[in-house]
Amino acid sequence: MAAAAVTDSEGRADREELRRLCEEGNPEAAINLLDEMLDRGGAVAAEYQAAVLQACGEARSLASLRRAHRLLSRSPHGIAAPVLHMIAALYCKLGARGDARRALEGGASSMRKKKGKQEDGGGGGEDEAKRQEAYEKVRELHEEIRAAGYVPDTRYVLHDVDEDAKERALMYHSERLAIAFGLVSTPPGTPLRVIKNLRICGDCHNAVKLIAKVTGREIVVRDNKRFHHFKDGACSCGDYW
């Protein structure tokens, strides 16, 4: 028990230090710490991965971004779709469209291999079943809000890909996946709360208003600017954020 307590304490200290380094704009030091955390076999939550990547983008360091991408690619847990899309968007922002395309193509290949292993009995379990259910819910919600008048605003996708790919990228933004997971994991009518360390994009803001309307749920999203309370197709910010 004592050893576990020490490990938990060290993990919290690492996460706090990682956040501090990112906030101070020191991506190389943050990547070094990320490397150590992964070497120790610990899982690094997506929000901390995103913080490191954001620090690379704000420092406009393509070399740091590539290094962080390589580290996360070697993680046994792989790269979650929202993080992968963030990596591709940052590559585009830094003028490396080829890297962005390769990142997205590599992520798609990895997902296909993982799915194949699960179908062969090499993985899965309740967590994986719930994750797949959430992805199916995202696609279902997309159809429902399209019927309710949603039109994807692909200006918020920086990848050098066709319009269909841009729409798919928007559909799998992290807040929509989180909301979908909440919908399949809670009883009808339960309010949902989502926290993200980046600003919600304009397309997701429009989409979540309609998701709240078609599901009859109250959805609260806390981004790095303010709280957004979505209910009955409207947001508390009055579409100004």
TrEMBL record:
It holds the Pfam family DYW_deaminase. Residues 127-136 have a biased composition (Basic and acidic residues). GO terms for molecular function: zinc ion binding. Residues 105-136 are annotated as: Disordered. It comes from Leersia perrieri. The keyword Transit peptide applies. InterPro entries: DYW_dom, PPR_rpt, TPR-like_helical_dom_sf. Keywords: Repeat, Transit peptide. Residues 149-241 form the DYW domain. This is DYW domain-containing protein. The keyword Repressor does not apply.
